[in-house]
Amino acid sequence: MSRNDWLVPVDDVLSARLTHCTACGRRADGQCWVDLAMVGPLAIAYALCARCQTSDPQRTRLTALLNDRYAKHEGR
Description:
Layout: H1 7-14, E1 33-39, E2 42-48, H2 50-55, H3 60-70
C-alpha cells in the first residue's frame, strides 16, 4: 500500500472534519475518539462518541459496520 492511500483519511483526522459518531450518527460534541481503520484495500477515518467508545471497547460493532459499508468497494 502506498502512502497516498492514507492521504484523505489522515487529512480528515488532522483537520477535525469528523464531527459525528460513525457508529450512532450523533454529533460528537467536543470530545470524540478518532482513528483509522483498514477495510480491505481502503483506509477509513472514523469517529466515536464517548458512549459508543465505552459500549464497544473492542470496536466489534464498528468493524462490522465499516465492513458492511465499505467492503463492497474491495473489488474495484
